[in-house]
Amino acid sequence: MLMTLIKAVGTVAVVIIISEVQKRSNTLGAAIAALPLMTMLVVFNLATDPKAGPGQAMQFANTTFMLFFPGLTFFILLPLCQKFGITFWWSFGIAVAATFALTIAAISLMRHFGVKLD
After folding, report:
1. Alpha helices, DSSP H, located in 1-118
2. Whole-prediction pTM value?
């Protein structure tokens, strides 16, 4: 239980640090956020968890890689929607919804072609 709490506090700390760095330097904040920090933390947490272990951590890393490209939808649609005059929050909602939809579609398509994700 204590280890889970430490992991949660560490994860929250990363998010706060990135947010604070971004306030001072957009480029540095974006560069740090562009690193797959959350994926790295999850892989580390899984690898060190006695119930999961390195095998499950590796499986998670591979699946995350397979779903990387559908995830880019958010970063393409957010500025594109705003360029067409849609307000930020509507653009954000559209980008999030489309990212979820494309990710689900990609999972279905990969499974259809026999790619093992689980």
Report:
1. 2-24, 26-34, 37-48, 53-66, 68-71, 73-83, 88-112
2. 0.72
Contacts of 25 (CB under 8 A, 6+ apart): none
CA 1, CA 69: separation in Å to the nearest integer? 35
Closest CA to 47 of 91, 3, 92: 3
Query: How many whole angstroms separate alpha carbon 85 and alpha carbon 107?
Result: 32
Residue type, 62: N
Quote the CA–CA distance of 46 and 24 in Å, as a whole number: 33
- Which residue do the tokens 């947490």 mark? 45
**pLDDT 10s digits, 67-93:** 999 999 999 999 999 999 999 999 999
What confidence tens digit (pLDDT) does each residue in 6-61 have?
888 988 888 898 889 989 998 888 888 777 877 888 899 899 988 999 999 999 99
